[in-house]
Structures are given as C-alpha cells and as structure tokens.
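Our preliminary data section would be incomplete without showing what the modeling component actually yields. Below, a chain of 204 amino acids is followed by its predicted structure, encoded as tokens that our downstream tools consume directly.
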Amino acid sequence: MNKIITIGREFGSGGREIGRILAEILKFAYYDREIISEISKRTSLSEKYVQNIAEQKPVIPFPIHTGRTFWAVIPDYGQSVHSEQHNIIREAASKSDCIIVGRGADYVLRELKPFRIFVYSDDESKLKRCRENQSHDYEKGAEMSDKELIKRISQINKARADYYEFYTGLKWGDKVNYDLCINTSAISPKKIAENIAEFFKCSC
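Predicted structure:
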C-alpha cells in the first residue's frame, strides 16, 4: 500500500510550503494546485473558477462518495468540481507515495489510513507570511490594512472549516482528527518539514 500524507492548514500558516519541502525530502509525489489543473481539464472549466469553488460547500448537498453519474442528473458545475476532486484524490493515492494538501483528503482517503497533519499559526505570523509572500494565495494582501487582512484570513479559514465539516461531519482543526498538529508561528517551514520527515519515518 502506498504511503500517504495529508495536510490540512490554516490560511497563512505555511502548510503548502511545508508540504512541498516534505515531498522533496521524502521523494513523494505532491498534489495541491495540480488537482485544480486536472479538474479544469476534466470539466472544461477555467482554473480560476475551479479554484474559487474547490473548497466551498456545494449548493445542493450530496454524499462524499458520489460519482460522476450524480452530476449528470443534476447539472451543477459546483457538484462537478467536488465530485471530480474526490476522484482525482483517490487516483493520486493509488499511483504512488504522495502528499496531498487540503480538500478534505484525510477524510476522502480515510480507509487508506493516511498520516494526517494539521498546520496552524498565530495571527501575527499569518500577517507576516501574507505580507512577504507574493504568490497567488496571498494576492491583494499588500493592499489591505492589518485589520482587513486578518478579517480576510478568517473568512478563508471559515470557508475551509465549513467545507471540511460539511463533507466529513468532523471539526476542522480538532486535534482528535489528526495524527500531528503543528504550530508554525516560531519555526521555519524547512525545519518543520525536516522534523516531520523524521517523525514520519519512525512512525511507519
């Protein structure tokens, strides 16, 4: 059976960067935005549109195990994205050892017993990271006041929590749902990834 690591993360906590570095150390496949790109190819929807709804609750509830036949009956693009996302996550896990960031992958793959990580940090660290990082994830942050940016970060994290809790019935970020929870406030992503790699190797 392939080794799987899933990473849930608060926005601005550095979870994505940790995932990339960890994948390099362990020589695992890495899936994050790659999932968005693949959904776009399969659904003929733009990546920007897919990104906007990939971690949002669907308008019409449907169970997490629903396959493609369901959204043929109810032609809703949001349904298509979520259904295809679950399919892609399962396919990725079946191919090789891998790290998957976000998107409820820990629950989607629960029967495969992934090593589940949750990454969080304090508001000051999130602000600093958003100010320094110019990637797509933190776009427009430089135009906001600290108060506005904290509010935006909270909104994004609430959306992630709502998505996770809708599909899983579990509380996002609750330590009982993860194998390892990490506060990234005072430690570099590289150091954290190195420590996780050692911990993971010992736990296998």
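The chain is about 50% helix and 10% strand. Strands lie at 4-9, 29-31, 98-101, 115-120, 180-183. Preliminary results of this kind motivate Aim 1 of the renewal.
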